[in-house]
Amino acid sequence: MTALAPDHPLRFPSFRAYLLGRVCAVLAQYGMMIVLGWQAYNIARETMGTQAAAAQLGLIGLAQFVPLFLLTPVTGWVADHYDRRMIVRGTLLLLTAAAGLLSIATYEGWVTLPLILLIAVMVGIARAFNGPAFGALAPNLVPKATLPRAIALSSVAWQSGMIVGPAVGGYAFAAAPWGAYALSAMLYAVALLCLLTIGPVPQAARNTTRHPIRQMVDGLSYVRQNRFLFATITLDLFAVLLAGATALLPIYARDILHVGSKGLGHLAAAPAVGAGLTALWFSFRPMQKEVGMKMLIAVIVFGLATIVFGLTAFLPHDIAVEVALAALVVLGISDMVSVYVRSSLIQLHTPDEMRGRVGSVSQLTISASNELGEAESGFLAALVGPVTAVIAGGIGAIVITLAWSKLFPEIRLARSFDPPDIRPSETARDPLVTDVKETTS
């Protein structure tokens, strides 16, 4: 086996602990989200009917998005001004408790739709603080020369967990509904233990001369004034917001493909297979050239795969499931390519003292594309049917990508991940203190 290079991120114990914690936390988060949707859909379908049950999927997504939307300016500022390790530890503790409560409620049989919605809100609040701090922590754990590879590994870990998580949750729920939540609680606890092993880390000193509210707004201003970051973030926002096929997997599993909870696990696992293989490829052969154009192509393929998945409703049952699985594998591959490029570009083109605030804006758009996309897909499915909702979403993602390639040529002209020379005077009118502090345990 080839030894790791001296500057490889995995040579640093704190980064290894961080990476394991990030994988476990994201696996738990997205595994829990698919189970929340499946359980809410089944409860609502038995008591309200199919159409109203589809709308419940929308409410679950909305319950997680609203806290993120309201708290984004605050959470980014907090991540830039306080110990990022402590923020992540506190949110992981809250998430562990939330998953444990749902596990007990499901096991004892007193889980209800209001309880599921309440937990979804709790998860949204925890994620609002967790995401910016967790994402901004990685660059603080390795030397500057190692930063590009560390950010790439962190991005791959996040995206792999985001796509593999639903598969893990789906299979666990098929085995024992309460066990799916228990597994999420355990993974959150492991992530918390990993973060507890990380000692003091350097972090840019907080600015005490500028009003906190102005500093909160600076994150939005920085993204808006940087056309490249703005284009990259909003492309994902609108493309995934429209093409939310995975949000409707419970409907496809139960009422269209008729494969049940076990089949839901297979469907949720298919994007994970594609994403996992792509992540493995990038670990050996990191992308280096024409990164912007490859991102645009990946989003178009994502839209095409979504359309194919939607069309499986018109195929004979004996081949519909196979085609659906293949389409979801391709969807996972393209999604991994897109997020790998976007996450790396965002982190590398943002100075450390702004990473929390820019990260919170990025997280808001990701949440808007995922959770708000779930709400949009659920409500649209209730109005026009799930098949039409999926196909129209895939077409919309392709149209958005073509439009963004014309409106923002910066994307297709991005040749590599090399960051610009970012100086303090360039950061959205946020005067920086050049000294560095160490956070304490």
Description:
The structure is a single chain. The protein is mainly α and 441 residues long. It has one domain (10-198, 212-419): Growth Hormone, Chain: A (Up-down Bundle). It is 78% helix and 1% strand. It has helices at 13-48, 50-81, 84-108, 113-137, 147-175, 177-196, 212-225, 227-242, 249-256, 260-284, 291-311, 317-348, 352-384, 386-407, 409-412; strands at residues 202-204, 436-438. A two-stranded antiparallel ribbon has the order 1-2. It is globular. The two termini are 37 Å apart. Mean pLDDT is 79; it is low at 421-441.
Task: Name the structural class.
Answer: mainly alpha
Strand order, sheet with most strands: 1-2
Could you state the order of secondary-structure elements as H and E?
HHHHHHEHHHHHHHHHE
What is the CATH architecture descriptor? Up-down Bundle
Number of helices: 15
- N- to C-terminal distance: 37 Å
Q: What's the story with the biggest beta sheet?
A: 2 strands, antiparallel
Provide the helix percentage: over 70%
Using DSSP, what is the number of strands?
2
What is the mean predicted local confidence, pLDDT?
Answer: 79
Q: What is the CA-based Rg, rounded?
A: 21 Å
What's the SSE blueprint?
Elements: H1 13-48, H2 50-81, H3 84-108, H4 113-137, H5 147-175, H6 177-196, E1 202-204, H7 212-225, H8 227-242, H9 249-256, H10 260-284, H11 291-311, H12 317-348, H13 352-384, H14 386-407, H15 409-412, E2 436-438
Antiparallel strand pairs: 1-2
Helix pairs in contact: 1-2, 1-4, 1-5, 1-6, 2-4, 2-7, 2-13, 3-4, 3-6, 4-13, 5-6, 5-10, 5-12, 7-13, 8-12, 8-13, 8-14, 9-10, 10-12, 11-12, 11-14, 13-14
